[in-house]
Design a protein that fits this description.
Layout (H helix, E strand, L loop, with lengths): L1 H7 L3 H14 L18 H12 L14 H12 L5 H10 L16 H19 L1
Length: 132
């Protein structure tokens, strides 16, 4: 049995487990089994609808701006498909489809870009010199 394990590139323990499983359940017991865990909440058909839903854009679902976030995606999945997901899991679903979720940059609506640019151009270099 050791030579068989070496030939297959597995440990002696793995070979021992396979032999015990074969003795108890025959060849059928050695077939690949899907990993344990809960069944997916979205069916394959529903998962296939996700790219179409995302292609409509966030505006089609009442969101302002053209950025998909995990929270927005989770809300749309719940509203349209009736399945609730945590936003962290939504990012895994979206990445599995070949898409990416985006995190918007949060900035004050009153932000004065010209004043910010002036501050970085004039005041920031002086502050860097003082700290250095």
């Amino acid at each position: 049995m050791t030579r068989i394990a070496e030939a297959l590139g597995v440990t002696h323990g793995a070979m021992s487990q396979w032999m015990a499983r074969a003795r108890q359940g025959g060849a059928q017991a050695l077939r690949h089994r899907p990993p344990p865990g809960p069944a997916p909440r979205l069916t394959e058909e529903q998962r296939g609808q996700l790219p179409t839903l995302l292609a409509c854009g966030p505006g089609a679902f009442g969101f302002s701006g053209e950025v998909w976030t995990t929270k927005r995606s989770a809300i749309v999945i719940h509203r349209t498909l009736g399945v609730r997901y945590h936003p962290a899991h939504v990012s895994r679903l979206v990445r599995a489809l070949g898409h990416s979720v985006q995190k918007p940059i949060t900035r004050a609506t009153q932000r004065d870009e010209a004043a910010v640019a002036q501050w970085y151009g004039e005041r920031w270099p002086a502050l860097k010199k003082e700290g250095g």
